[in-house]
Structure formats: C-alpha cells, structure tokens
Amino acid sequence: MTSVELTEVSRWYGNVVAVNDVTLTVGPGLTGLLGPNGAGKTTVLHLMAGLLAPSQGKVTVGDQSAWRNPEMYRQLGLVTERESVPGFLTAREFVLASAKLHKLPDPEAATRRALGIVEMEAAQDREISTYSKGMRQRTRVAAALVHDPKVLLLDEPFNGMDPRQRMHMMDLLHRMADEGRTILFSSHILEEVEQLSGTVQVIVSGRLAASGDYRHIRRLMTNRPHVFTISSSDDRRLATVLIGQESVSGVSMTDGSLQVHASDYGTFTRALAKLARTSDIRLTSILPADESLEKVFSYLVAT
Ligand SMILES: Nc1ncnc2c1ncn2[C@@H]1O[C@H](COP(=O)(O)OP(=O)(O)OP(=O)(O)O)[C@@H](O)[C@H]1O
Prior knowledge:
CATH class of the largest domain: Alpha Beta
Keywords: ATP-binding, Nucleotide-binding, Transport
GO molecular function, one term: ATP binding
Radius of gyration: 24 Å
Strand order of the largest sheet: 6-7-8-3-9-10
Bound molecules: adenosine-5'-triphosphate
Structural class: alpha/beta
Number of domains: 2
Family: Belongs to the ABC transporter superfamily.
CATH architecture of the largest domain: 3-Layer(aba) Sandwich
Oligomer: single chain
CATH topology of the largest domain: Rossmann fold
Distance between the termini: 34 Å
CATH superfamily of the largest domain: P-loop containing nucleotide triphosphate hydrolases
Number of helices: 9
Pfam family, one: ABC_tran
Helix content: 25-40%
Protein name: ABC transporter
Largest sheet: 6 strands, mixed
C-alpha cells in the first residue's frame, strides 16, 4: 500500500503561483483531482511524479522523496494529458517499448499483462492510428502500468471521450484501485467524477478548496447562491411574494423579466413552486443564470 503525500507544498513559475501551500494525502483506492482549467492540477501531478521540484514543502511517494529520485519510478506511473502516441506503431509495440525502457526482466510478458488489464488484447496488433480515442487512451494507460506500479497518476484521462468510453475507463480505474493501487486522476468536469466511489479533492487557484465524496462536493456546489430569471403570469405580484422569503436575498425586474437572487438552490426551488400555487400565479419559465465553472468552483474557496 503506497500513499502519495504533499506537505505544505507550493510551486511557482516566476511570479505565477501554480500551487499554494497544499497539504494532501492520496492513499490506496481511486481519487479524483477536480478543478477548473489553470487551477494547478497538472502541476500537482508533475510534482507527485517527480518531474517538478516543489518551490517549498515536501512531496513523498511511499517513504521516498519524489524529486530527483529515479528509484521512485519503480513504484509510479504517469499518463500525461497530451495524447502523444505514434500512430504507426501497434499497441503491443508501443507498450513493449515502455517495458524495455523500464528494463523489465521479461518485457514481452509484462506487455501481455498490461494489455490484458486494459482489455486491448484483441486490437493489440493493429496500428494505433486506427484506434478510437478510448482505445488510444487505454493503450497509454497500459504503457504507464507495464512495470506494475503501486501508484498511477492520470492527467485528464477522460478528455474528449464519449460517455460509453468514459464509463469503460472509469471501470478500469476502479478495477485497478480495487487491486490495492493508489490511483489519482484529474478532471475539470464535475460530471466526470460522478461515477467515482472514492474521494474527490477540489483544487482552485492552486489551493485545496474542498474534499469528500462526489455527493458531498455536488451538495457544496448546488447549495451555493444562485440567480434565476423567472417569467410568470404576474411577475410583479410574484416579486412581492418572493421578497418575503428567507431563501431570497434580492429581486429585480429588468427587460420584462424577474431576476431573483436565491441564497440556497434547494430551499428556494422548493419554496417557489409552493408559493406560486398558493398565490395562484402560473410559472412559465425558470432559468438559472449562466455561471462559469470558474465561478462555481471559486464559491467553494470562499466557503
Ligand atoms: N511552465 C510554466 N510557466 C509559467 N506558468 C505556468 C507553467 N506551467 C503552468 N503555469 C501556470 O500555472 C498555473 C497552473 O497550471 P496547471 O497546468 O498546473 O493547471 P491545470 O489545472 O492543470 O490546468 P489545465 O487543465 O488547463 O492544464 C496556470 O496559471 C498556468 O498558466
């Protein structure tokens, strides 16, 4: 059982602070690292993989320091974000090259084992250029785990996949985690971690903003303040009724529609339907205002 640990880690590039005083332990099982673009996810993974030195703090894999420690690569595999697989090779050739780079005693057997884990045996002798996105990604996973590492890090492994491919990849990650490995993957899409049974660590602007299971994170995000645009059979009367509600912090009428600031999504939406019914007002549309993912995540930092 191998854990990866960050203790008071910061990493800056010139005057850009990419990771800001993060303390975090990722233990055996499956963990998601969630955050908007530019939050520092890649930097965290590269620190864990020993590709970057922390500007401050300590990064360990098992009991060993990650930085400047080639020994660590026996324990760890990394699937990088950018898809760079030579299309003219077959999956078997690609994974075998990785096995040879690791100087494994029986590279052929290790290649067969890794391709078996990702269920790529049937297509292993076809050129990678003929594969689907999901198959290419699984081939890259096989290359990263050919040396049977205890820790596997994956940077945005679901990027560009359709829902079926995504489910297949999530099953694969769960299976590897169930074998006792420490698996950490990054994502900038909340729905991508929906099928995750393990922990989600949320990172925003280089800081650890929240952690817990998917339902906990989802709740934190939906319980934040929301703005709704509402149309009804009598907007003006609806406005006067709503302003008396505890879950409403402001009401305004602009361009013929009603804007409502609600302090809590769940309480407000439940109250709205009931109020409209008892006041005999017909609701014709309720639209949540468009909020960028950035803003939603930032709310978590503020709490
Ligand atoms: N080599 C670099 N030089 C300067 N700034 C960098 C460098 N690498 C990353 N950054 C900056 O550090 C911050 C964190 O970047 P990082 O790539 O770790 O985020 P991320 O969460 O992985 O985002 P993305 O999903 O968009 O890759 C960003 O502001 C980014 O612009």
